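Hi everyone, sorry if this is the wrong subforum. Our group has a chain we'd like a structural model of before ordering constructs, and none of us has done structure prediction before. Sequence below.
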Amino acid sequence: MGKDIFDASVGLAFSLALFERYRKNGLLQAELRHVPGIRGRCKGYLQLVEGKVTYCYIEDKDGQRRPMSKETLIRLDNERGPFEWMLVPLPAPPSPTPRMVVTPQAEQNSPTPRIIAPLHLERLEGWTNSQKMMLSVVYEAINGQRNIEAIKVQAGLPPNVTEEALRILLALKVISIV
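Answer:
Right subforum, don't worry. Here is the predicted structure as tokens:
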């Protein structure tokens, strides 16, 4: 096992609580057996961003993906596991830029985010409506021409909230920063 992979085979529910507490990013995966409605073995996946489960699915032996709730995977793990869950980290989002007074010079030097994939809010299981709204507002403020400082103004949210939303959008791989 590589040093970047975390063993989470102590139980899915316990591991998810720890990953949320320590705000881990990554793809939690395990080989599953005896999944109702699926013949043979399959793999279960839970995507984590800042410790929150953003998307869950299973992949059958033919590579077909089927959405699955976090609760169903926890129940399977409790009843038929524990399975050997491993967290493969996602690339860490860049560290936040230090807060600075916005001057014309700072605005010119601020990086510019670009949308590279659609934002699927319905996949953010366990997220509150206000958290989803925050992500949506920041995502919609990104037009490929506004830099981070201009997005902070456009979004109308507190600057630290906008920065956090940008980090989450980066971790979700729906934006890039150039």
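For your construct planning: Helices lie at 12-21, 70-80, 104-109, 129-141, 148-155, 159-171. Residues 129-141 form the longest helix (13 residues).
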